[in-house]
Structure formats: structure tokens, C-alpha cells
Amino acid sequence: MFDNQQKQQTKLPSIVYSLITGFLILNFANVHADSLKLKETQTDKLKCKAYKEENGQKYKDCDQLTAGKLSITMKITATSFDQNDIDFSSITTETPFVINIGSYQFSGSLADADKSQLKSKGLNGTWNRMHEACVYNIINDSYDCNPVKHGAVNIKASAKGATIKITSKRAVNEENNFGDQAFLTLCGTATVRSKESALVSISIGDAPAIERNVEVSCKVNRTQKAPAPLEPFDLVNVSINAKLAPVAP
Questions:
Q1: Is 90 exceeded by the pLDDT of residue 76?
Q2: Which is nearest to 37 in space by CA: 153, 164, 160, 195?
Q3: pLDDT band for position 20 (cuts 50, 70, 90)
Q4: How many other CB atoms are there within 10 angstroms of residue 93's CB atom?
Q5: Average pLDDT in the 95-99 region?
Q6: What backbone torsions phi and psi does residue 12 show, to the nearest 5 degrees?
Q7: Contact 205, 91 (CB under 8 A)
Q8: How far apart are CA 143 and CA 230, in angstroms?
Q9: CA 55, CA 170: separation in Å to the nearest integer?
Q10: How many CB atoms lie under 10 A from the CB of residue 102?
């Protein structure tokens, strides 16, 4: 019996060592892996006004307003750079960056960025996403239009990897139609909640694209509002979260 106890005692440290080693390897892999954090929303609302005609009859007019937001942060490690033959030292102001995340697309170089910096130790570029906002000028019987920022793309990179940040606001109504989206179309057919799969692709210069599978979580709320005497409006509110799918060991 004493011998059995000794054997159990000698085995225990090796088991603990294996658990600790596995835990450290798993966390090291997580820390040094690519990552994606995406949040996207869409909200439908009704904006109604009541009117009164000269004969005293009242009526109502409603517009459906759609608004949304998109926020993306993606981190790419030096390991991914090496695996895809991306040489940071070869990047110039003319090197193209191409981003595809769902239906979101971006293509640009530091040369056409709104703000940019390229040094031997790192680069930083920001590209503003613009649309034209127009207001009717009754005096001139014409529209006055001005560029307005609704989003931006920021890329920071060095030999250690890259961080991509994307933000965008979206509006769709009778007066406006601007903004970006990523997975709204993918989640559009969802009922209440669903899990979908997608692909992210990042290209830098002529190197092979970095492609990653994505897990997309969709939450959809569909309602109808019927402000009498108008026909009912279909309102859809969507909340989306996405992250990179686990990579098989």
C-alpha cells in the first residue's frame, strides 16, 4: 500500500506540469494569433407628422428612417506576415492595401490617404470615408452640396504586424443614402438569432492575401407599425457581432 501511495505521489507533479504547460501554450497561441472584433447595428424608426387641411380634415405622413453603425478592429501578427510573404521593409507610399470584410470593401495606398506617415520602424495611414450632403436652396432653385465624413479607415503597421480600425455611420431615408456595411446582407434573412460563416481577406501589395474564416452572430428583431390610416411599415433592427473562427491546431 505504501508503494502505491509513492507511485501516485510521483505521478501528480507530472500531471500538474502537463496541465500548466498546456495552459501556457494555449495562452501563448491566443496572444500571438490574429484577432477580429466587429460590431454592426441597424435601427429602423418612423418619423411621422400630422397635417390639417383647409377643410379641417387631418392626415398623417410618415417616413421610415434607417440608421446604422459599424466598428471593426483587426490585428494581424508578424507570424501572418511571414506566412504570407509580407515584407514590411518593401512597403512604399504606393503599396496598395485591400480590405474585404463581408460586403465592406476598401482599397487605398498611403499616397492617397488623408493622413499618412511612413518610417523604417512603422507606418500609419488614415483614409476618410465621405459622402455628399445636399440641401435644397429655394432662392436659387438648386441643391447646395458639401462633402461630409461618415467613416474612416486607419492602418498601423510595422514588422511586428498590423492593426486595422474601421468606423462608419450609415443612414438611409428620402434625403440620405450613405455609409458602409459588412454583414447586414448576410444576417438579413435571419429569424431572431442565427450563426453565420464568412470570410475576411486582407492584401498588402503583391503578397498573397491573408484570409481568415469568421463567425458571425446575428440578432434580428422584426416589427410592424401601422399609424392609421397608413399601411403598415416593416421595421427591422439588427445587432451583429463577429470574430475570427478558431484555427484547428
A1: yes
A2: 164
A3: very low
A4: 13
A5: 98
A6: -60, -50
A7: yes
A8: 30
A9: 40
A10: 25
Note whether 175 and 210 are within 8 A (CB).
Answer: no
Residue 112's DSSP bridge partners are none
pLDDT of residue 143: 80
C-alpha cell at 163: 492593426
Strands of the chain, DSSP E: 35-52, 58-77, 97-101, 104-108, 115-118, 123-137, 142-158, 161-172, 177-178, 193-204, 210-225, 233-244
- Output the pLDDT for position 6: 47
Q: How far apart are CA 96 and CA 200, in angstroms?
A: 17
Helix, coil or strand: residue 32: coil
pLDDT in tens, 158-172: 999 999 999 999 988
* Residue located via cell numbers 474585404: 100
- Whether residue 29 has pLDDT greater than 50: no
Residue 144: its pLDDT value, please? 82
pLDDT at 52: 80
CB 43 within 8 A of CB 68: yes
The bridge status of strand 161-172 relative to strand 142-158 is antiparallel
pLDDT at 187 over 60: yes
Residue reference for cell 488623408 = 114
| Cβ proximity of 207 and 201 under 8 Å | no
Q: Grid coordinates in use for 94?
A: 504606393
Helix (H) or strand (E) holding 20: helix 2-31
Q: Answer yes or no: are the C-beta atoms of 85 and 143 closer than 8 Å.
A: no
Whether the pTM exceeds 0.70: the reply is: yes
Task: Find out whether 117 and 123 touch, Cβ atoms under 8 Å.
Answer: yes
Query: CA dihedral in degrees (123, 95, 166, 247; nearest 10)?
Result: -90
Which residue's C-alpha cell is 428583431?
A: 221
